[in-house]
């Protein structure tokens, strides 16, 4: 059963008040909320302007070096950050747009989406989830993912 009508803040707010914050637990809750198997949280490093991997689930270990630092404008996360809007693929395996990097196909995921994490029009990073099957995320799911990103950004802005 999906939980899409559950407000993001009721799912992760209690976890965001922990010290230290368990980013893995937060990501796992978000992934479960969307019935996904894979996900990433990247935070924008102001000094380098790179998206730095903070947490991941379901990513093969050999791909982690390619995901640890992502330039703005590269791959799904980099493009979501650059455009400041979600980037979605129904099937990453068959995509030929060039948005997904070649190594991304090695994750074996298909339906995937990455949303920018924004607060007051400021980019703080990206939040991505994916399923092992082709999938088009609904407008409600996209809004929910953006809300999770906003909730996270509100906590990390300090």
Automatic annotation (TrEMBL):
Residues 24-154 form the GAF domain. Gene3D superfamilies: 3.30.450.40. It holds the Pfam family GAF_2. InterPro entries: GAF, GAF-like_dom_sf. This is GAF domain-containing protein.
